[in-house]
Amino acid sequence: MKEIVLSVEQLTVYREDYKAIENVSFSLESGTDTAIVGPNGAGKSTLVQAILGILPRQSGHVSILGQPLSRKGSLAARIRQQVAYLPQNFLFDRRIPMTAAELVGLGWDQLGLQLPWKNHKKRSHAIQEALDRVDASHLKHQMLSGLSGGETKRILLAYCLVYPRRLLILDEAPAGLDMRGESEFYERLYQLKQDQGWTILQISHDLDMVRRHCDRVLCLNHTLLCQGIPEVTLSPDNLSAAYGSEFVRYRHQH
Fold it and tell me: How far apart are the first and last CA of the chain?
């Protein structure tokens, strides 16, 4: 039996005065890739942000590697270090004089892993190794202001790789890339998943990609309408119930 990396039980979250998600429950097994699908405004980003603790929850429980998200102390901090998050839009002031390597290094520093100068080589080696794994070593000294969208996504993946993680959460991470850039992003992502043993939870509007690559699907529209393998969950009846008129437009465009 595979280890449960993430467990969500009866999660309900309000945004301002309305109920964004209600009584959502699911779990992720180690090494699997699970997609959250649903129409715009269905609560997908709210769900991810509540799992990460960015948004407060009104009720329910979230556990990572068997430890409650609400737990305090050093053990809880170490558990959170096992989670990496790639948002839909990485917003930053392009006037900040920071190189790609310096951004990747923040992925080490923000985990409280600052080392004495005598061990500085360990940090430097981790940064270089992370850049190598995403084929971005040549961008090491490039300023962030000079990176393309695809290069920025690669550097963010390196940021996630600079310290070993168990769970990678993506909120439409390829957003803003053209078709070639998106294809390259997913190709690199799934190679890293195999190499690193990541468990992935991702929000996606690309149902064709979900069918090709994901192990499980969560179909969400404020509540969890269904979940399971793509072949069953992405049936026309399920998608029509979740998307309504949006599903009709999707079928017409594809």
Answer: 38
